[in-house]
Amino acid sequence: MSKKRGLSLEEKRQCILSVFHETRDVFSLKDIEKLATKKGVISQSVKEVLQSLVDDDLVHQEKIGSSNFFWSFPSEAAVKIESNISKLQNQLQEHSKQQAELQQSLAVTRTERQASEEKSRKLAVMQELQQTAQALQVDLQQYAENDPERVEAIANAALISRDCANRWLDNIEALRGWCKTRFEGMENQLESFFEENGMTSTMDYLT
């Protein structure tokens, strides 16, 4: 009986991302390890995989007190895809322009009917640009195939982000009330702390 194949790094990343996108909630590392284990990711590798997602801006990390908390919304993945598409399109246009210039220059060089270092260099660059352009076309096609999901994610992003923002506003207000009760007499210092961290009393619910 063959041994069961373990998950690749990318498969582990997708499993952990699905934990966030399915629940649309905020988790501690311990919570993520428990949920990711249920999806087949061994707990010992969760921290490393999670860090790779944070490094790629697919998951956000915030330290509150002595604990780190993580979250990611489906809309962010869609925005990243859109950004990558735009970047690839710009690169493709630039490489296509360079390729056209090199082809024109090569045609002139061929009329001279003599080999030269400049001709060989330009030919090598043109061939490299052709390969790069072909690779970019493949990447663009892959993104195009995912386009319906991107459109759907963007369509739902505003509602999801609004609900999460309003839920965090409730949490902030609850924390403000608890702090004022717990540290009675320090209202001014507490309010300054909240203001300095962007949690102003004028914040209102998104509609």
Automatic annotation (TrEMBL):
Organism: Apatococcus lobatus
Domain Leucine zipper with capping helix: 149-206
Task of the protein: Required for proper homologous chromosome pairing and efficient cross-over and intragenic recombination during meiosis.
Major subcellular site: nucleus
Molecular function (Gene Ontology), one example: double-stranded DNA binding
Pfam family, one: LZ3wCH
Family designation: Belongs to the MND1 family.
Domain of life: Eukaryota
Key words, A-Z: Coiled coil, Nucleus
Residue ranges of every copy of the Mnd1 HTH domain listed in the record: 16-74
Name of this chain's protein: Meiotic nuclear division protein 1 homolog
